[in-house]
Design goal:
The protein has twelve helices and ten strands. By secondary structure, it is α/β, with parallel strands linked by helices. The protein has two domains: 168 residues, Rossmann fold (3-Layer(aba) Sandwich); 140 residues, Rossmann fold. Helix 6 packs antiparallel against helix 7 and helix 8 packs across helix 12.
């Protein structure tokens, strides 16, 4: 389990720090179907006891006003702040089944691709409720499922309306960026080493790609079929983006020195237009990597960053 835990920490620190590569790629594989979207209330008449197995799922439950019913969360859930005091039950890749069973949940919220975990939970007599994945459309669908499942359809509709309206507002940047900025969005790499290694970028992921398209910029590489392709320095030189944006929530707790070291890594490619023009931005907000209700904040942050690079007023 040690290797799985290390991978998950790399992907989810500190609050699902980087919805990165492995987790996101897995969740794009829709193996399995959504669980029954209309759970029945426990026979005791009490509100269902719920466990959330990913930070984004925890946030979705709280955004829908279901926080009081959450009795356990995954190890990496940090938002909203009150979840930090809740019992921890492992994570998607290394769940603590004993801890889950001890909390006697009525429902355990997971993702559809977690078929093994779903089977383990059912074997223990527990009921998993599966959310579709981490694409932007999946976030919307998850809100609908949870709203219907736990009788909070009105809250779900309010949340969806707000998110969709704010997402539409991202498009106000489009007419003002001409020619379109060519953006490379780095979702993971080894940082602070004085070099560029293990670089993974957003491709056709249905999450960041949707946001960049709405803002009106061009995401590099273009016409990419992979969700999160890996690129080497030579490939990046060929792309020569106008703007490089990195998603790095794990740096937030490491201080300015670590952030500067990550910036300095790009000096190994001084020929890059983005490096020459000082257009490398590292975003450390925790919501930048979470496919939950705060993902609209990620879109707005990207829009703000692209507008700044384009010289647009705030």
């Amino acid at each position: 389990m040690g290797s799985a835990r290390s991978i998950y920490k790399a992907l989810q620190l500190p609050v699902c720090c980087l919805l990165l590569v492995s987790i996101l790629s897995l969740s794009c594989k829709q193996s399995g179907t959504e669980a029954d979207p209309v759970p029945q209330e426990p026979t005791s008449g009490q509100a269902p006891r719920i466990i959330a197995m990913a930070p984004a799922l925890t946030e979705l439950l709280y955004a829908l006003g279901l926080g009081k019913q959450v009795v356990g969360v995954c190890n990496f859930s940090q938002y909203p702040p009150e979840v930090r005091g809740l019992p921890k039950v492992g994570a998607l890749l290394d769940p603590n089944l004993e801890a889950i069973l001890r909390l006697q949940p009525d429902y355990v919220i997971i993702y559809t691709h977690q078929t093994t975990l779903s089977e383990q939970l059912q074997h223990l007599g527990l009921k998993p409720l599966a959310m579709p994945g981490n694409k932007l459309a999946d976030v919307y669908r998850s809100i609908e499922i949870l709203g219907q499942s736990f009788g909070v359809q009105e809250q779900a509709q309010t949340l969806l309306t707000d998110m969709r309206e704010r997402f539409k507002q991202l498009q106000r940047f489009s007419p003002d960026i001409s020619p379109r900025l060519r953006v490379m969005l780095v979702v993971w790499r080894d940082r602070g080493l004085g070099t560029l290694k293990n670089i993974c970028v957003a491709g056709n992921d249905g999450f960041y790609s949707e946001m960049i398209q709405a803002i009106g910029a061009e995401l590099l590489p273009v016409n990419m079929k992979l969700s999160y392709p890996s690129l080497g320095p030579e490939s990046i030189l060929q792309l020569n983006p106008d703007l490089i944006i990195e998603i790095a929530p794990e740096l937030a707790a490491k201080g300015q020195k670590a952030l500067q070291a990550a910036h300095d890594d790009w000096q190994v490619l001084p020929e890059l237009k983005a490096v020459q023009n000082g257009q490398v931005y590292i975003l450390t907000d925790d919501f930048m990597a979470l496919p939950g209700p705060r993902c609209i904040l990620a879109g707005e942050k990207l829009a703000e960053t692209i507008a700044k690079a384009a010289g647009m007023p705030d």
